[in-house]
Amino acid sequence: MTKFNRRRFLEGTASVAAAGTLGTGAAVFAPAVHAQASPFKPEKGAKLRVLRWSRFVQGDIDQFMKNVQAYTAKTGVEVRVDNENWEDVRPKAAVAANTGAGPDIILSTNDDANLYPDKLLDVTDLAEYLGKKYGGWYKSVEAYVRPDGKKWIALGLGTAGSMMVYRQSMLKAAGFDAFPKDTDGFLKMCQALHAKGTPVGYALGHATGDGLWCNWLMWAFGGKLVDQNNKVVISSPETLKALEYGKQLYATFIPGTLSWLDPSNNKAFLDGQISATNNGISIYVAAKNSPDPKLKEIAQDINHATFPVGPAGVPTESHLFFNQMVMKYTKYPQAAKDFLRFMMEAEQFDPWIQACGGYVSQPLAYYEKNPIWTSDPKNTPYRDSTKNMRPTGYAGKLGYASAGAGADFIVVDMVAEAISGSKTPQEAMDRAQKRAERYYKV
């Protein structure tokens, strides 16, 4: 069964664009990789249940379900898909892992797979099949779902790129012809926008996706949660500089960001309350495909940019990663692998990426050539999100500790406390240090 009653606010459809641009289908991209027999044979009488996060663009779920129906038609395997809010998938996945009952396949976020790797089916054979066929997996994907460098505990699905979303007219009115590329220029721009009565806004609540800008802030100044040996080092001079900078940045924010969750900045942006934020491409897609003339006009004014580079001297992108986990308790492991294989093959994955309208950046290098990334130049900044991102547990090795620390919003809470003034930067860092050390026990 499917559920279409979640997160109506950001409904938009990219399916019309997909049909117009993709033409006769994905076969135009890779005739050489098609028509190969599946190495996985579904068990007799197999039935699958899939739990996934609810869509942010309507084209995603529309094409996803078309692909599901195509799989059932081809194999006879019945597939039920349940869509849930982002915040609901993680606890439901944890319950399923701990009780040994529930969905066969779960599509979740970030390094959730590392919370219970022993509860997940080994999908190394499937990952190697797809990697060899489609140009290889990005290293960032392997960091999340192949933490020991050998065994694949899940598959990557892609990334919802967190890019700067801004109103071009408001930047120009504040004296900026282009989005700044460094943190000094970014702060000056935010101050100028605030002075013009068009403030910026970035989520400081427990927002699974949009709160990831806090990682960028810390990393941009050379701070990090842990070092390469998984020693907690978040309380550092580098993090302190990031938080002092953040205090200046926070002064330019619209009120209320401390309680913002993932939908909050979308609403504020499309309501004209803010001039810039960080988000996936869903704001643009929703406005572009809306029947409301005012939103269509806003879409023409929207543009995207990568996050500014800070004193660290290199891009420090943090994006929302999507994984695909097969639970070890499934009665139909071969069917589950075959279903994921089918969904990741070019015939299905290319149209799905296209229908997502740029919301999901591919995990396999081959799909960089999908026309969604060049059909609209405003989409292009999102293309390399998966390839360029740092994992949330940077610079350490991912595992139980990184997954737990991420799920506990330690970095987001530290930034929120420090830049809002509820704690001094040193107090916020020290609290984050102690909280993180509970996960990264020596």
TrEMBL record:
It is found in: Periplasm. Pfam families: SBP_bac_8 (PF13416). The keyword Transferase does not apply. Keywords: Signal, Transport. Belongs to the bacterial solute-binding protein 1 family. This is Extracellular solute-binding protein. It comes from Ramlibacter aquaticus.
